[in-house]
Fold this sequence. Notes:
This protein is 37% helix and 24% strand. Helix 9 packs across helix 11 (344-352), helix 12 (366-379) runs antiparallel to helix 15 (517-529) and helix 29 (960-973) packs across helix 30. Residues 1-12 have low confidence and may be disordered. The chain is of the alpha/beta class. The strands form nine sheets. Strands 1, 2, 3, 4, 5, 6, 7, 10, 11, 12, 13 and 14 form a twelve-stranded mixed sheet that branches. Strands 31, 32, 33, 34, 35, 36, 37, 38, 39, 40, 41 and 42 form a twelve-stranded mixed sheet that branches. A seven-stranded mixed sheet has the order 44-43-45-46-47-50-51, with helices on both faces.
Amino acid sequence: MTVGVLIVLAVMPIAAYAQLSSAEYTINTGEMVLDFDVRYDLGTVMYDRIQITDGTDTIILGISDVISERGDSIRLNMDSLKAALVNNMSSPILKMDEGAVRFGGAHSAVQSVPIIGKVQVGVVIPDTYQASRHMVELSTEHFNHILERSDASWRLEVVFNDNERQTVSLLELEQSDIDVVIGNESLLAKSRIAQPGMIVMACCDASTDYDIVRGDPLFFSLVPSNNDALDATLAMMNDVGINRILPVYPANDRAILDRINYQAQVAVADGIQYGFSDSSEQIVSSVADAIASDLVMLPGVRLGVLLTSAHDTPRILEAAYQDRSLTTVRWFGLETHDGILDSSKAKFFAQEVGYMVPYIGVLENPLTVSLDSYMYGELGYAPNKTAFGAYDAVQILGLSILGDADIYNSDIDKFADLNVEANDVAGVISGISSEFGGYTTYAGLAEDGGLEAPVYQIQSVRGDAWVRTAMYNNPVDTKVGTISFGDAILPYIQYVAGEPLIDDVVQVGLLVHEYDAYEAGLAARMGLALLDGEYSLVVEDVTNNDIQDGMRLFSDVGIPIVVVHAPESSTLEASVHAQNHNTLIIGTASTGVQSAIQNDNTFRMLPSDMWQARALAGMMAHDNIRGVVAIYPDQTQAQSLLEGVADVFAGEIDMTHSYTDISNVMRNVTLSAIEMTERYGHEGTAILALGDGDDVGYLMDNALGTAGRINWYGSLRVAGSPSISDMTTGSINLAALSPTISGGGHAQLILDSLYLMQPPAYTNSLFEAARVAGMAMTQSDSNADIARALLPSIADDSNLMYDDISFDENGDLASYTYDIWRIDDAWIRDSIYDVMTGYASHIPIGVMVPLTGHDAQRGIQQMWGAHLALSAQNEILEQEGAPWRLSQRVVDTASSPIVSLGAARDLYNMNIQAALGPPDTVSVNEIGRFGSYSDFMLISCCSDAPDVYNSYVVYLGSTDVHKSQTILRMLGDDGISNLLVIHDGSSTILNSLASDFSGHLNVQEYDAIDAHSRVVADADDTLSGMLNLYDRSSVGVLLLADHTDTASILGEALYQNNLQYANWYGVSTDGVLPDILYNPDAVATATNTNFAVAVPAIPKDVDELKAILRMVIGFTPSSDAYLMHDAATLLSTTIIQLNGDSTAPAVAEIMPLLAADLAGITGPLALENNQRLTLSHDIWRIVDGKWQLQKTIP
């Protein structure tokens, strides 16, 4: 009997979704971590089905590579051979074949992820340096943010080692194969002892010993040396005319006298040496005797007392307070000491004798103000300025590992191309740091590892604080676009080394009463930081002090213009002092009717309360509110504002609920609200709260019953308050108002820059007030009478947050429009109330431009071009009484198609279906595909994308076909029939040119890694043959390259004979002429070869617009700005014609029809069948070392 056995083979199911989420590879250790978004079945991993590959080389993993399995991750360790293979792969991926692992019994599907490399940097900074540690983390986050948005294949990772003994920390990091460490100054000495063979970058202290730094090629320091502070002090003594120095020094530091004698350029007295047991009075007595002797014996001497010990300075100054003879000379020190501020006598004496000290040179720029904002939000206190060096330390090391000071310009695709070993990083740090320049100070490092030109603030005591009054070694700065600071976009200021001189700083006063002085200071500082020049904010918080004393401080130190951030009564008191002491004040938080006096010395960067009252009444009337219960503090301004509302509100207002004790008011308010709802219903009843944000937040937290179910309204002290959130309001609908800020992207970016600190909306006026005060101080040379006359015209040109700054006859901001803010997940600005014309909603238009990366300058001018166009349209809408206005919502595309597509989706999710930009072709194509199935309309001003029709994309730029036709016209005009094309492989113009050029064409392509000397040598050989075959006058060279390559190739071509005998041509792809004027060799070649460059034509008769653009963007605009202006005009005109409908299908349908009859500043906007314009091109050549317009080709 035969028995059959039936074998059933089970077919395992395949998991239907991806489980492998990432593969991170630590380059310096060879470790790799695979992360899964779903837990896998332990024990089911088949490593021979997991491979690392770049399409050419492949590594199959094995069980020997495994360190651990955790269910949601796998840790692997590559041996040295495999690690070397991975490091030399081009853009490696990790691939899992089907069934490589199981999930819930199901086989995994085939899947792959790119391998992201990580380079580790050690951090040995004590816990007591909390701000410095936070700076390291933040700087790393920002560095990686840029890498991620640039689609780079690697990241920086910081590893903190907190062993109490720093030498142990170093050795533990060395054992972890980490070759680069950031630490505080003491780490240098510890590393000298341990000798781990690692790079040590010191930061976050006031001074260090450069003998240690110079003693090891792996040591670097962003901390100045002990001698640098003395250099700065001697420089400021020289600057004020000191010709003899009296050192006062402790006996245990005799070396300081030798250093002073060696470094000083004027006479040095023997000085006063004191011992540990000497009292302050004894020291001061000796100083007084020496001063008296010198002044008698040395006619014409200008003596300066130099205190060398910061520790002893407070007690010496306190003792000196008693002797008036000591005020006849100037006093100086080598560093600040807060003990001076803790002693009223020392503080007073320091101010009286103009005591000055150098302090580590953190610069006042938008990024450092934003850093302060972040740290204040994180830590709850202002960070010590020494901590800022940690931010630059991370950036310098990250760029040195990259091997390029331009993080946006890196094309690293192999991990082996990164500098990971200590000696490799050390070899480039000096050059990279100098080219980078620094974000928080000039951070260029010399070859010996120390700072090339250490920057110092010169500080003096003003009131209760140290204030920057001058700069030493102030770096030269150039605004070169914008940078990504996490999610914030900030102006990028490039620094190069300054001169060892003292530069003055313009001081601006800020008096604060009953508000957070630090938050107010941040807003004012940001306003000043966005100006050209050096400004210092002197903040006097008089919340617990006398306002008159605070104002006297500013008078005493020569600050005749003061920004006053205070309630009405305090502003009035400051105003009285200003009128009596020839001081100007600019109020930012109060505009009570009773303080509106014509021709006084008080201006206010807010509209009069008369207009706020009408706006509150109009806002409630628009919402059909008929009954109002008012809650207000028992203060004159609140009462006056409420009376103003009652005068114009047509409904009923219960005005009986004023309070001095807020805790007892809500019970009676609730009873009144119940009575009011019985007459007008819940929908017709509201609560009007006129306290500040803290008060209203408390009231809403305690709103029960009816009071918690009706609408609430708030004044300008409420809008944007961080004390109020959606959790505070619960189900309450809250609306508050503040003066209308600009709908432009620049205002949005400024507000975003103070992140982790959400300032109330009324602090927007601080940005403007500080700027106006600073400019008035500069232009009037600190003369109050001149400033009073100039201030209105200065305000007209300084607007930043507001589109228009002008003052009425009382000195109030002449504006009648208010933004209406409401709480959703956060405060949102959703509409406008114009006292003259009524309610108007916002219609946002997306503006997608590169604000970071290679094309940042293009993005800035495009953003402003769009804003100016929309502002002009809004003026028309206002005049016509339209119930809506246009505004920008700016998103950064970072010149990346991936980021651009994400930005388009973000706008679409905000219910924005029509957008302007971006300028790069690849991004436009990505967004165009998204828009065609998602109803998203894009108007690209400057893309040169191929002629492909898409009803949801309109192109106003010069296409490849247009550029090609322009080149053919140039060649034809010059009789060129034989052409050598040198290109970098990225240009798409060549395809169009090749099909239309009727002559002989030679094409030479080069790679990014090719030396330009080799490129031009090859081109010279090719051209030699062409010159032998053809008439020389018929031979030309077309260079299709970016600006950097263009300058370099032209420069190298000067040394190739044949290349000088042909005409050269180029074409701009970004509307800007190539930057070659800095390169003499490039200019010589351009002159010899009649180098002609075609650029989209700049419109004629736009001088006024050009002047405005140049003023706001800081450089001469290219055609991009004007094309974007036309694009914004076309889109806004379409939306206006559609009566506010900005949906993509509606816009796409009628825009081509409207364009047919519309003329922009660049010419007629009639679109071709492929929704494009045909643009004229300007032809430029170098004449006498400068670019000169030759002709325009239509």
